[in-house]
Specification:
Layout lengths: L5 E5 L9 H18 L3 E4 L13 H11 L4 E8 L5 H14 L4 E6 L7 H7 L8 H19 L6 E6 L2 H10 L3 E3 L8 H11 L11 E9 L3 H19 L10 H5 L5 H11 L3 E3 L1 H15 L3 E5 L5 H14 L16
Parallel strand pairs: 1-2, 1-9, 2-3, 3-4, 4-5, 5-6, 6-7, 7-8, 7-9
């Protein structure tokens, strides 16, 4: 049983045999269904030049989804600070928050969103990789511009995304809610959250430590179907283990014929042990275990499966078998500063 709010991360996988525009069209139906199901928030990830993930700007998807839904919170999970001017981020998300009061989140991350160095340089207009100090300055400047320059009233709720203790430390220093990428670096989760809570400094944005944990969740009526649905993403992960970034997102049938090595199967099994795959009882049970182990205030589900219908069914099954949280309860200070 889960008594925490449940949210979702949209990574917009472009399926083999389809076009990016098909994935883009699916995002609207996805947002509307999650809104109806009662998920608290839906975030969009920033990616570039990938054969498996659509390069759809989070700010654009957020604006479109906000106009076609009524209650679910929407935002970035995240926009990547090195790729954007702080004042532009403040203006874009400040405008969205003014148009859709108390529904917009600004999740900020550090990575380039691409494995291609030429793409990373193009995003940064030729600048080199960001430093720790540069990233901190960009995040702080974005927060400052939100207050000092935008002045549109209700502000977006800022979050810092992290997959390491270093990122968690910055969230603690700046007094921001922390969204931790357990679906990427599960081995880092507990140490990072411990550091965040121990070193948190209250701020105008957040009075106490707040933790959202993102978990890869694939739920189906049978264990066999859940395993089948997980196959395409397992192929992508196996490619990443080999250092291959140009791996398309295959169909389940194509994935079932993929020749995984023994080492890849071992690595995938180790990763799966930290996530939530299986029947509703198994997946919800695993989510409850993650929530208890991490002390999370909220869980975010990422479900990278082939076909919109199967992805939505996974979210439906989880919500049906989890205890519905009280979404009306305030979870932070007022977002007007």
């Amino acid at each position: 049983m889960i008594t925490l709010p449940l949210s979702a991360l949209e990574v917009a996988m472009v399926q083999t045999g389809t076009r990016a525009v098909d994935t883009l069209r699916d995002t609207t139906a996805f947002a509307q269904r999650l809104d109806a199901l009662g998920y608290r928030r839906l975030w969009y990830a920033e990616h570039h030049h990938s054969p498996a993930i659509g390069a759809f700007p989070p700010v654009v998807l957020t604006a479109h989804a906000a106009a076609s839904t009524s209650a679910i919170r929407l935002g970035s999970g995240g926009v990547l600070a090195p790729n954007h001017s702080p004042i532009m981020l403040a203006e874009q998300f400040g405008t969205l928050a003014a148009l859709h009061p108390d529904r917009i989140d600004l999740g900020i991350g550090r990575g380039p969103g691409t494995f291609d160095e030429s793409t990373a340089r193009a995003l940064r207009r030729g600048a080199g990789p960001t430093t720790d100090d540069g990233y901190r300055d960009d995040v702080a400047a974005t927060l400052r511009f939100l207050v000092d320059e935008v002045a549109l009233g209700t502000l977006p709720e800022p979050w810092l995304l992290a997959s390491s203790t270093a990122g968690a430390a910055l969230a603690a220093e700046l007094g921001l809610p922390l969204a931790f990428a357990h679906h990427i670096r599960p081995d880092n989760t507990l140490a990072a959250l411990e550091h965040y809570r121990a070193h948190f400094s209250p701020s105008a944005w957040c009075e106490r430590p707040r933790v959202l944990v993102c978990v890869e969740t694939i739920c189906a009526e049978t264990p066999e179907e859940a395993e089948r649905l997980a196959g395409p993403m397992n192929v992508v992960k196996a490619g990443l283990l080999k250092g291959l970034s140009e791996v398309p997102f295959p169909s389940p049938a194509e994935a079932s014929a993929h020749p995984f090595t023994a080492e890849e199967r071992q690595a995938l099994a180790g990763f799966l042990a930290h996530q939530a795959h299986g029947t509703p009882e198994t997946a919800v049970g695993r989510l409850a275990q993650v929530a208890e182990a991490t002390g999370a205030d909220e869980l975010m589900l990422v479900t990278p499966v082939y076909a919109l219908a199967a992805r939505l069914r996974s979210y439906e099954l989880v919500m049906q078998h989890a205890t519905a949280p009280d979404y009306s309860a305030p979870d932070s200070k007022s977002s007007t500063k």
